[in-house]
Amino acid sequence: MKDGRFHLKYKAENAVDLETEVIVAAEVYHGNVGDTSTIEDTVTTAQTHLREAGTECEVKEVVADKGYHGEETLDSLQNESGVRTYILESDRKTNRTWTDKNARRESSYRRNRRNTLGARGRRLQRLRSERVERSFAHLCDTGGGRRTWLRGLEKVHKRYMTAAMAHNLGRIMRSLIGAGKPRCAA
């Protein structure tokens, strides 16, 4: 707290379709919540949005960076949600020991590692770094979603969802008429 003012930290997560670059889920969480505990909610929200939209699409693969890697997260995503994971793992100085852990968790970990190190995993990680990070930069930096003066998670979430809808509308306009902004179309 400084001069009677306080700052609340929020973090945002996007679920983006790698083919069309459309944001399927845009979630905002409190800043003290880790990425490994929020990715399951974001994937569930993306599946719900696709179902509600009446599309035949569904979430089959999850591609994420090192911040989302966790043994419990991989196990839950692969076995309970039924998705294939391509989540990079952090560099470790020591080898993992699996003597005190569940065999299912170890197989989920090894399956993710095999998926990530394969040719398809590398290609998907390249697409993620190009397309997902670009859409996130458009929302947060160019779109002004990085900082907000609103109070409350609900209001911040509404503001962020509005920015995500504007991004999706721009993607649709670009695919239909070749321009993403009304001024360019004129």
**Mean pLDDT level:** 83
Instruction: Estimate the global geometry from the Cα principal axes.
Output: globular
* First-to-last CA distance: 48 Å
Helix content: 40-55%
Residue runs with pLDDT of under 50 for 5 or more positions: 1-7
Query: What is the element string, with H for helices and E for strands?
Result: EEHEHEHHHH
Overall SS class:
alpha+beta
Major sheet: arrangement of strands: 1-2
Radius of gyration: 18 Å
Strands, count: 4
Number of domains: 1
Number of helices: 6
**Largest beta-sheet characterization:** 2 strands, antiparallel
Strand content: 5-15%
Could you please describe the fold and organization of this structure?
With 186 residues, the protein is of the alpha+beta class. It has one domain (10-90, 97-139, 149-185). It has helices spanning 35-52, 71-80, 103-117, 119-142, 153-177, 182-185; strands spanning 10-16, 23-30, 61-64, 84-87. The strands form 2 sheets. The protein has a two-stranded antiparallel ribbon with strand order 1-2. Helix 2 links the parallel strand 3 (61-64) and strand 4 (84-87). The longest helix is centred in the C-terminal third of the chain and has 25 residues, at 153-177. It is globular, with a radius of gyration of 18 Å.
